[in-house]
Amino acid sequence: MIKMLIGLLLLICGAFGCSSMEEKIQPATELDLLQTIVDQNRTLTSFNSELPFEATYPFNGESTELSDQQLERLRITENEDQMMSKEETLEDIDLLHRTWKYSYAMYSWHGGDEAFNQAHTNLTETIDQEYSDEDEITGDELAEHLCDHYGFLTDPHVQIGGSSVVISEHDFYTTEELEFILDENGDYWLHKSDELLDKLVAINGAPDVEDFLVPSLNNDGKLVYYLGYYTSEPVTNPWSLEFESKDDREVFVRRVGFDYLSDRSFNMYEKDEVDVVQFRNMTVYEDDSHTYEDMLESAQELKDSPYFILDLRNNGSDNVDFVAKWYEEMFDQEAGLGEYLVQLSTTTNDVFLEETVKLYDEEGALIEQSLHHVDEDEENERREPNWYIENKDLTSIDDNDTPIFVLIDQGTSSAAERMTKQLKQVNQVYVVGVPSAGALSSSRSLNFELPNSQIRMSVPSEFSYHPRLMEKEGVGIEPDLWIYPRFAKNRVIAWIENHY
Fold it and tell me: pTM above the 0.85 mark?
């Protein structure tokens, strides 16, 4: 589809006199090509259906929620991992099993009673079979068993012992050894120094070469295509490329790894006369030299910029409240992805909220908003389990005059992904980098500790339901321009210099 539309776009350009190769790669044409790519990648739309039945569940009949005394045992301690008996191990497993339904907002979505009961049964049988009554078991051993048996949870926010239960199975493979551009017919040509060298006719025997090419920017800031493939399947090397001249080639692609960035969590600066605002984290800590007000004021300051870069690489923050506020400051309207916001409110989560707040306090995190819905008249009291559901409208903006370039990578997760997805509903916003982490749906994770193993658990108490968001779980948001994250900023600046 992209190939067809771009080809049509170039044909229209040709009808108005863009006949030579040099003219076709001029900035105006590149801007049109980029807009076509962005339009095809702007996939979020409103949906008219009700919240699916399986998204929530009624709390009918006799409650199986843990008692106050049992919940007290799940509070976080400073005790170190210790050896456990088989009986103590099974007790931790049973306590965890009884928390899921009253703590995890996506419990029903991941199979509900049937799936979690089966996991509990299988896990108990595994412990019975692998250990005798005299064996001692470590917390690390139990954590491995928990991750194994709850591996059906495709939610990156669920963490056991500090590690996500799910590991992304998707990888991006690419190489910049060869560079391609499109001609007026939508065909891809090997390209060097503004010269067409040869037309690409097949990759690995497949004539649909666009399936193995991704739009990108080169070091000169020009819109080009590189070999690239985002997949959950193994990729074999080398790739065979067939050209019209029969001068075939073999090329090796490699998996794009993760770049750890150790710079400041928040920064606003200018690079080569381009404004850059950098969010590595959306939570402010006591030792930070900036405040939430500083971060929000960046939106006001950027309103006067002719263009700017929003750097969300390595941002795994869960502060969805900040995202909503920053968006409203930037565009003077409320954010919304057309989704249902669903929060699970229980006595269990009240206790886990207290522990989470304590953890944040110990870490020096400054929390402006409540992580969880607590009615004043219910605070510190046992409550009936309940759902709080809000339907948000889809917010789209079509009159934005400021080109915005959003940098993402595999570390862009959670609230930063929601920010990216929200910004993709704004015109003149371009997402650059590699696919994000794919942790878009759940949020507001709460923490507790299994009493015998001291395994820390982190479980989301809220999720956002939108069919397209659910599809991106574990997959991530795909960029408009696919660029090695470490090169993205400089190449975007080169693009800006060429076009604005």
Answer: yes
